[in-house]
Amino acid sequence: MKQRMWAVGVDFGGTNIKCGLVDRRGRVVTSLVLSTARFGRPTTFVVGIHRAVEQLAASARLSSARLAGIGIGVPGLVDAQRGVVHMLTNVRGWCDVPLAGRLRARLHVPVFIDNDANLVTLGEWRWGAGRGAKSLVCLTLGTGVGGGLVFHGALYRGASGAAGEIGHTVLDPDGPRCGCGARGCLEAHVGTAAIVRMARQAGVAHRGRLTPEWLAWMARRGDRRARAVWHQVGRLLGRGLAGIVNLLNPDRVVIGGGVANAWALFAPSLRRAIRADAMEIPGRTVRVVRAQLGDQAGVIGAAVLVWEER
Amino acid sequence: MKQRMWAVGVDFGGTNIKCGLVDRRGRVVTSLVLSTARFGRPTTFVVGIHRAVEQLAASARLSSARLAGIGIGVPGLVDAQRGVVHMLTNVRGWCDVPLAGRLRARLHVPVFIDNDANLVTLGEWRWGAGRGAKSLVCLTLGTGVGGGLVFHGALYRGASGAAGEIGHTVLDPDGPRCGCGARGCLEAHVGTAAIVRMARQAGVAHRGRLTPEWLAWMARRGDRRARAVWHQVGRLLGRGLAGIVNLLNPDRVVIGGGVANAWALFAPSLRRAIRADAMEIPGRTVRVVRAQLGDQAGVIGAAVLVWEER
């Protein structure tokens, strides 16, 4: 037991593959990044992870015998139990790849996979803003609006591993068309593209590209239009979450992802909307907080998966 | 073990208090009904249940020593763990009543309480249309639209015992005002009052009161307007459930309550709406079925609570 004190967590994103050596307390001891363009195909991925694990072990001066396992979060649909990647959302070449088995055969350590939103949830729940919660809704705000769920003190994956699609709960059936085909999903209201559209409609001044980062910068400088857009984001998010809070009566809602960097700009109107729209008891019970692990959440959560599943 | 083969299940409603002697396989062996008007106050309720238990035991010729316990479902907010009724929705006089403790002191058997929607869920899950499901969403359609949730193979109550309020997930933020104060809740769209309103707007002919029962009768006779209203009910319900299916990716959705008697009239458009609006994988995975236990679900579920909690 004492021997196996480390896990490697891998966060497979559309641009980067982040790898970290994580200890049992959820601390990233050392990490490195691979480019998805070079290592994003199934065969190159396996080679890349193999090398990364060796480098991480070497830089921390530990023998691979002390590695408890590898956890991998991928942006797509997986069969966590069988360790198979069914498909990835923005990376080509992945169709029913038995990834865990291939890596296990090559590295001779236990390998676990899950989708990235589930692992962010697992990370925040064990070592971040979700600590101690028995029931948790974790939301990641970015290009996509994803999420994960913890019930009865365990990650909940649903009947086919697809649970947690908070971005595709409907906020307004007459709202904007969503990428998933439906209308008025939460993602179509508060995903990056929707925020940029709102900023454009509000006439927020910009040079170059109008992005959520720019919009946050403008709002922090006191630009009234930019601030109004963030209020609206908070309001829409709060409305959408109110229904989820009524349905699930969770201990806590944790909000992460890149857009959560603008937390202070939208959190007050988000909390107000939940208080206004949710029923009294679940609305009063829930604590809505910002994620704490930042962009390490995926790597830490992937390592947590190793400790949980072994 | 062999000794204690029975439980008494109690379903406390706004009009009647149904009591049943239930065996370990979820069969109601004998039952009786008390009037809520006479036995609905905390003190009279305790007296009524005491007598009912004696009568049920006598009519089945079994000694009270063979009673495993009493389960009670109430229409309101409870602390299931401490056995306290915080308040009831349509029955006065209940404010933080330690009901389980009082009955236990009087009857000397274990007593468990929970809200009625949770117990319908528990009943359908163990012995009805939800059998074998690891994750389940149970919806009851009536004056109110309630529900219960099963995750990880166990009833999920939420952080403060209020989970499952499917009726108060928002379907359309610009929709009709709901009794809960918010706008466009599922209950405001497909609760009894909403169905009657739709029928009236559609100009469905009627003598005397226009009720869902009448509307179903007219639709079965072939009345086109009545049929169109039921299609619309199915569509709205399917839209609302699509978001929940995306979020929770459940094995099964079970639909009960009085309005579910019109199942054949609204189920096709309900299923169509889920297929159209839910994401592919959760939409394909979920089975949407009608509840099987009818108006015995509450009594059977209350008995299940005894077996589960002992």
Folded structure, characterized:
The structure is a homodimer of 310-residue chains. The first copy, chain A, contains 11 helices and 13 strands. Chain A is of the alpha/beta class and 310 residues long. In chain A, helix 2 packs across helix 3, helix 4 packs across helix 11 and helix 8 (224-248) crosses helix 9. The mean pLDDT of chain A is 93. The first copy, chain A, has 2 domains: 6-121 and 296-309, ATPase, nucleotide binding domain (Nucleotidyltransferase, domain 5), CATH 3.30.420.40; 131-291, Nucleotidyltransferase, domain 5, CATH 3.30.420.40. In chain A, the strands form 3 sheets. In chain A, strands 3-2-1-4-8 form a 5-stranded mixed beta sheet, with helices on both faces. In chain A, strands 11-10-9-12-13 form a 5-stranded mixed beta sheet.
> What is the mean pLDDT of chain A?
93
Termini of chain A, distance in Å?
12 Å
CATH topology of the largest domain in chain A: Nucleotidyltransferase, domain 5
Quaternary structure of the protein: homodimer
Largest interface: A-B, 45 and 43 residues
Low-confidence region ranges of chain A: none
- Proportion of beta-strand residues of chain A: 15-25%
Number of helices of chain A: 11
| Alpha-beta content class of chain A | alpha/beta
Q: Tell the overall outline of chain A.
A: globular
Total DSSP E strands of chain A = 13
What is the radius of gyration of chain A? 20 Å
CATH architectural name of the largest domain in chain A: 2-Layer Sandwich
Adjacency order of strands in the biggest sheet of chain A = 3-2-1-4-8
Characterize the main sheet of chain A.
5 strands, mixed
Q: What is the assigned CATH homologous superfamily of the largest domain in chain A?
A: ATPase, nucleotide binding domain
- What number of structural domains do the residues of chain A give? 2
The CATH class of the largest domain in chain A is identified as: Alpha Beta
